[in-house]
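Section 3.1: Structural characterization of target chains.
Under the original work plan, the team committed to producing a structural model for every single-chain target entering the pipeline before any wet-lab resources were allocated. The record below documents one such target. The sequence was received from the expression subgroup and is listed exactly as submitted; it comprises 121 residues.
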Amino acid sequence: MRALNIVVTTADAERLRGALMLAAAQAALGGAATLFLQLDAVALLRAPIAAPRDPAHRAAGLPDLATLLDEALALGVTLIACQSGLALCGMTTADLPDRVGTGGPVGFLQATDDQARLLFA
C-alpha cells in the first residue's frame, strides 16, 4: 500500500479532523500515514485540543478532535508540527501532545517517497 502524506495548511479544525480521519483509516488498513501541520495549523495542537464542532460530532456518535488525534497516534499515524509554525504560534515542543514530532517542510518532503500519495487539507 502506498504511503499517505497529508499537509494541513491552515488553522481550520475541520480540515485537521478530515486529515486525521483519512490518516487513521490508512493506518487501520496497515498503511503508513503522516500528517505535516504547517505554520498556523500548528495552533490546532495547543492544549486543550478542541474544535467548535466537537459537540455536533459527539452527538452524532463520532469522536471529538482530541479523541480522534489520540486514536490516530495510537494507530501509528505520524504527526509532525512545523518548527516555524511553533514559533509563529508562540508554542514550544513542550506544548505539543505526546508522540507529536517537529520538523520542517524540506525534511517532510525528503521523507516522502516518490510513490506516496501527497494530499493538502
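The chain has five helices and five strands.
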